[in-house]
Amino acid sequence: MITLHERYVVDERGNKTAVLLEMDEYRKLLEEVEELEAIRAYDAARASGDEEIPFEQAVAEIESKR
Known about the structure:
Layout: E1 7-10, E2 16-20, H1 23-48, H2 55-64
Antiparallel strand pairs: 1-2
């Protein structure tokens, strides 16, 4: 789990309007989001019931359509 040390930008009424993060925390957060997207894509592919094909075959099919 990522520990964030966020800081907030507030408007004249004290309402939070933006978040400030250190760059390393931001990069870690982006990595986590990318990993979650990959997991969701994998889960969706598994649930689709489509036929599984080897990675090399998939790449070859994509390349042939370019």
